[in-house]
Design goal:
By secondary structure, the chain is an all-alpha fold. It is about 85% helix and about 0% strand. The chain contains two helices and no strands. α1 packs antiparallel against α2.
Length: about 80
């Protein structure tokens, strides 16, 4: 593997790592917003069901979205490596 190919692979891995962490932070943010809505700590009154829905969505995003993203990336990488011998 040449140095430029290695640099490109490292840059891609770094971007993917950042994207996965942004997905986790976004899920955590949704969870916290949902909890804040259900506990009525925000200055505006919003429905409890909205808060509960956001909290569940945040949990799902936090735990499952990074795994789904990684699985899609691996499938794409495998497809690319199968096309180029």
């Amino acid at each position: 593997m040449s140095q430029s190919a290695r640099d490109a692979a490292e840059a891609q891995a770094r971007r993917r790592y950042i994207i996965m962490n942004i997905a986790r932070i976004g899920g955590l943010g949704l969870l916290l917003l949902g909890v804040a809505i259900t506990r009525n700590v925000l200055p505006v009154q919003l429905p409890w069901a909205l808060g509960a829905g956001l909290a569940v969505l945040g949990l799902l995003e936090f735990f499952f979205l990074p795994a789904i993203i990684a699985k899609r990336w691996k499938a794409g990488d495998r497809a690319k490596s199968d096309q180029h011998p």
